[in-house]
Batch of 4 targets.
Target 1
Amino acid sequence: MNMNSNEQVRQALKTSFSRRSFGRIASVVGAASALPILNEAALAQLSSIGRIPADAIKINANENPLGPSAEALEIMHKFTPLAGRYLYEETFDFVKTIAEQEGVKPDYVRPYGGSSLPLHHVVMAYTSPEKSLVTADPGYEAAYRAAQTVGAKYHLVPLMKDAGYKHDVKAMYEKDPNAGVYYICNPNNPSGTVTPMNEIEWLVGKLKADQILVLDEAYIHLADIPFGSPLVAADKNVVILRTFSKLYGMAGLRAGFAMARPDLLAKFTKWNSGALPVTAMVGAHVSIKNAKLVPERREIIRNVREDVFNFLDKKGYSYIPSVSNKFMLDVKMPAKDFAAKMASHKIYVGRAWPAMPTLSRISVGTKEEMAKFKEALPKVMG
Ligand SMILES: Cc1ncc(COP(=O)(O)O)c(C=O)c1O
């Protein structure tokens, strides 16, 4: 098909939904908007920008423009005609493979349609008006938004500016030694920076029976750093979240999992309802079986990222060095104004964080997309 992905999505929507049926869906979602976890912003993963021009460059949501791997596409195609059935067994097989690869027993793994839902549920289960959430600033907002839904306090602890913007685990612990949840995203969203495993282990060593660390590894495949799974295998109070929305290029398909000791899982997986999308399950399963996929894609993304960083260095722009598929660029103006100016060049960049109001989060797109970003940037920065 000779169309870019925005146009493909638009065409697919046109032919699949009439305006009336879309209106009906919208009214159901609207009625649920009083429920914080089902509102439009949550459904949009905090990064909805509405309809954009067909030829726009979309580098706002840390997606992977490469999309699902070739073998994922093939098996999902094969399973679509069979999807009149629930096909639970396909999900059980997926869980077995994850367990083998991560070195845990299968009952330590719970599959989900993405990692947003387990993130919301685990925070809701382990925070309360008496038990706070401690997270990084800037950090991924979904964790503290979930805490707010149960009336819990949350504490934002600055990343360590002078130490590569890693999490300040000691300050996080000291902020509230009785918190219900400490949330660490490694590498972090939005900064793309890494917190060393020995520092994460230090925090884990401090946890009492009613406290947990939520280790969000949404971006772990993009960085060449160790997984946290040995902490789960060692039965620590750690819940790991993974998603197939980033390196695996399956954000719209929805696959992910939570990994923890079964008694920790039991506390928040009780809100699950049942079957999962079989296309996403088989697509994710075949993707993790391909040992080459992660290193190959990591290198593709790293090369594009390093090329952009070389360009920024030459131009004298400052940014936070990242090992992920996004980075924070100092745009020397309110980041919202920068986003609007870039949008006038049909380039859609990410959001900003109040702690760093002139830093804009830029996702790493394809080489061609980033060439257009590099072309527009000096025009906007002046
Ligand atoms: C840090 C982090 N965690 C979790 C998620 C949720 O991703 P998904 O629900 O698509 O798996 C995201 C999405 O951007 C994220 O950035």
Note: Residues 70-289 form a domain with the Aspartate Aminotransferase; domain 2 fold (CATH 3.40.640.10).
Target 2
Amino acid sequence: MVVDDAQFMRLRVTKLLTRYGHEVVEAENGEEAVRTYCLLKPDAVLMDITMPIKDGLTALSEIRQFDPQAKVIMLSALGQQAVVLQAMQRGARNFLVKPFDTERIIKAIQQVLKRCEK
Ligand SMILES: [Mg+2]
């Protein structure tokens, strides 16, 4: 699941993941992310931090409460190190700093999915 309030970002990441054979659902804020997660239980989540209605940190906590095994990778902007640290403490598996390159996204996803199979 790709969660970001910026449509161009969702489009970009979805396109990339689809090209690599992943099935992707999107959410445009934290609230939609939590709802969609509970419905579909996606294998992994790419989660933006700054979003309206419900931010990524809150959504991360709620998703992990629903599913303690949830694999969430945070998408952060430069200068959000403190929030990223909080996210890791709340159970995020990894983080990617924007603007990120395609190789990093794919690598991070493959890493969490590999751990998922074990
Ligand atoms: Mg944002």
Note: Residues 102-117 form the longest helix (16 residues).
Target 3
Amino acid sequence: MRPADLWRHSTFRLALGVALFILTVLILASGVGYGLMQRQLAARQDARVTEIFKAIDETSLKGDRIDLVDAVDAPIKASPDRPTVFLLRDASGAVLATNIADVTLPDGWSTVPAARLAVPTDYPYRVFVGRAGAYSLAVGLTNADLDDLQEIVLGAFEWAALFALLAAIAVGVLLAMRMQDRLSRAEAAAERVAQGDLSARLPISDRGDDLDRISCAVNLSLSRLEGSVEAMRQVSADIAHDLRTPLNRLKIRIEAATARLAEGLSADHDLTSAGVESDRIIETFSALLRIAQIESGARRESFKPLDLGTLLRDVVEVYADVAEDAGQRLILEAADVAIVDGDKELLTQGFANLIENAIRHCPAGTRITCGIGTAGARIEARVCDTGPGIPPEEREKVLRRLYRLEKSRTTEGNGLGLALVKAVAELHDADLALSDADPGLRVTMRFPRSKRA
Ligand SMILES: Nc1ncnc2c1ncn2[C@@H]1O[C@H](COP(=O)(O)OP(=O)(O)OP(=O)(O)O)[C@@H](O)[C@H]1O
Ligand SMILES: [Mg+2]
């Protein structure tokens, strides 16, 4: 990873941001702490000066002038480095004892530069000037300790800040490098998807962190997308394949008519057949478009609460005579009030397709029973017959567009009835299932109950 790339890593920037924040907090905390400490030390220094002053002042009260001068001279001799300075004057202003220059100092507290006192040091003195009996006494204490401490604290802070910054940069680089690996793999997968390979998936670690959760969600979407694209590809291939036969038939009819006309013969029969064939093709396309329109979900907007029992009863009534003509019995077993949210026209069409199938694909003598019941929290609508049924391995396939069982190839129809039922079921969030009625076929649709009823 190049240093310039580092800056583009959110992890690195986050680590640096946290470091700068900590640094700011450190500066503020150190500033406050340092201020408090300085005040404390200054107060102690003043207390020490006051203590020395008082000790000498007491001598002035108890003893005579010689004792007082001795009390000042003793510490002067004991500390030739002059950490403490003294200046004792008598009432006339004459200097009696001192270890500094003969300077006039203001009464009370003051901070005086060492140069002014003629002491060869860089640190100023904290000085108190007051009266000791009839004398004027100045006592001062060097600021050296305070300054040294200030330097130590500032030095320590500088090191701490530098260390924190370097540690943050190191952690940032480390995290960015660890992330880089995962992101590179995710980027590669995304590139493959962009190039049309929908089987590519984002890598998922066993850490289960937020990146993994996002990757899982993206992978799930990719799986769904892959499924839909594959289904669409399959549908297009099926449609192209299945429409070749009627188009070929149409072509043959037209060629036959052309040949007959060329021979001066009547082509009425072939042209009529060609017309019928074109009607069938147009009908197929209309049905395909209708399924596509249902699948788009637009009809969901017009859903209304409706009673599935009444709806099924009406459909059964319409088909009762047709079944009877085919030598079959169409019975409505139970149709209690069952309210669902749905599209009346589409649901009628769906049930009609199922009943029509039973009539068309089952022999005379078949008993067709319809009913509405409950299945757990859902409402179940069913259409069963005692016909030949559909083998288990074909049950998924008959739901595809244009798919018909081999034995039904000769019967009327184009294999779109169940595809429409499936689309209607999906639109209504209903679970569609084809099972064995032993003998015969059982088709069930389980609807969610109406939320508005
Ligand atoms: N009740 C049934 N019993 C036996 N086979 C059935 C039954 N219903 C459907 N099938 C089989 O499933 C196939 C697909 O049914 P679908 O309703 O999709 O098409 P279709 O009835 O052939 O034509 P269309 O409904 O478009 O007029 C049928 O061709 C038939 O082979
Ligand atoms: Mg059908």
Note: The pocket of magnesium ion (ligand 2) is lined by residues 353, 356-357, 413, 417 (CB under 6 Å).
Target 4
Amino acid sequence: MSDESIHDVVRNRYGAIARALDEDTLQKPSCCGGTSASTSTSSSASASCCGEGAECGTNSQLYDMSLLEGLPVDATRLSLGCGDPVSIANLKVGDTVLDLGSGGGIDCFLAARQVGETGHVIGVDMTPEMLKKARANKAKMGADNVEFRLGQIEALPVADQSVDVIMSNCVINLSPDKKSVFREAYRVLKQGGRVSISDIVTEGEFSPELRAQVDQWAACVTGAIDVQEYTGLMREVGFVDIQVVDKADASEIIPPQTGMPRVFSARITARKP
Ligand SMILES: C[S@@+](CC[C@H](N)C(=O)[O-])C[C@H]1O[C@@H](n2cnc3c(N)ncnc32)[C@H](O)[C@@H]1O
């Protein structure tokens, strides 16, 4: 499939999830394989893209619950990440922060509290329905230091060397051109700027048959690549100090099958020299 076809499938999936929230038919929004099971209780790397329990989608186990207080319900219900990249981003008051694939905006709002009035948070997402939800959530919160831009993370609508910290939560695995994502991230970061990512990665490769299952790609499964390849791409575009901070087995939410490598939710940090 072409890159644009993959984008279309991914956009359709996340557009449908955002619309389901509006229509109150959101049952099990999950970035991972359309399943909801998870037993993780950690707020570090988590193998959960979808909350366990009554309110699937609250992702309560991804974050320290106290962090979620005061966020609009629609922001927490649309939380589709696979970890908490904000808590390891070491954000400072006044920072400019960029969230790649911001969805309903949960990580943007958490970051906004940390960077304060003098800071600025930009969320970029290619799905118009998600952007609409994120902007409505921003209005509910009165978060004046947050803005959401429509765009693809492979061609960011963001100026060169204008960002202190890039975050991303369960998104880069969805990109058909991960090297362009990292190249763009590098371009927009200031010198010394940092990256803090949660994402699905593998140890090993999917079989070509599984890799071709585009619905599973859109569900954050078959677009995932080997963690060595992932960090290798970051290195190739110029990032240094690349660290896999933690890694949680994701087999409970992405059931193993023939041709599937081991799948993890990992948190990865790096720096632009
Ligand atoms: C699994 S959700 C994660 C959303 C959010 N980061 C969170 O933690 O809740 C993936 C999001 O990334 C967006 N996305 C996927 N691929 C993208 C791309 N190539 N460019 C921009 N946005 C993308 C989708 O529209 C969707 O909102």
Note: The first strand starts at residue 96 and ends at 100.
